[in-house]
């Protein structure tokens, strides 16, 4: 089981990165906010979880333990697989997700692509007891956002990893950051991609 990877980031895509370790390139599926923390050509570190199917072995990568824990927790819900769990991580911070689950905030849970009212209600019912203690301790940070320092650089690196030139990326990042007060890195990245015609 591959628990983590540390090595040179050789490629950054919208939903995956390639990290080279000891001459082997590992393709790791990640959320946009995770991709935004990495820089192509520099050393990167990811916590990883491997999902093995009959016809595939897929690595999923995370910046920290709370993201990874949420990924595993969501998959204990009937009908929620790894792709849907990653979509949740891309849209909501772990603390926000915990509060939404514990409080039965179906509207917030339905912000996750692929989650309708029925699945959102199932997530609430099956996980509310598991996250209630954590969410009560972390409720103050549920609406927290990424500090402004370094956000633009993360976004620029992510966009350049997707093939955009600095000339294309810089105006899109500046506009997204200026208009996106209070948003997370993943939300800002989606805004920038939308303005570039890729959202």
TrEMBL record:
Source organism of this protein record: Tsukamurella asaccharolytica
Family: Belongs to the RuvA family.
One Gene Ontology MF term: four-way junction DNA binding
Function: The RuvA-RuvB-RuvC complex processes Holliday junction (HJ) DNA during genetic recombination and DNA repair, while the RuvA-RuvB complex plays an important role in the rescue of blocked DNA replication forks via replication fork reversal (RFR). RuvA specifically binds to HJ cruciform DNA, conferring on it an open structure. The RuvB hexamer acts as an ATP-dependent pump, pulling dsDNA into and through the RuvAB complex. HJ branch migration allows RuvC to scan DNA until it finds its consensus sequence, where it cleaves and resolves the cruciform DNA.
Oligomer status and interactors: Homotetramer. Forms an RuvA(8)-RuvB(12)-Holliday junction (HJ) complex. HJ DNA is sandwiched between 2 RuvA tetramers; dsDNA enters through RuvA and exits via RuvB. An RuvB hexamer assembles on each DNA strand where it exits the tetramer. Each RuvB hexamer is contacted by two RuvA subunits (via domain III) on 2 adjacent RuvB subunits; this complex drives branch migration. In the full resolvosome a probable DNA-RuvA(4)-RuvB(12)-RuvC(2) complex forms which resolves the HJ.
Keywords per UniProt: Cytoplasm, DNA damage, DNA recombination, DNA repair, DNA-binding
Pfam annotation, one family: RuvA_N
Free-text comment on this protein's domains from its UniProt entry: Has three domains with a flexible linker between the domains II and III and assumes an 'L' shape. Domain III is highly mobile and contacts RuvB.
Gene assigned in the entry: ruvA
Region (Domain III): 149-199
CDD domains, A to Z: UBA_RuvA_C
Name of this chain's protein: Holliday junction branch migration complex subunit RuvA
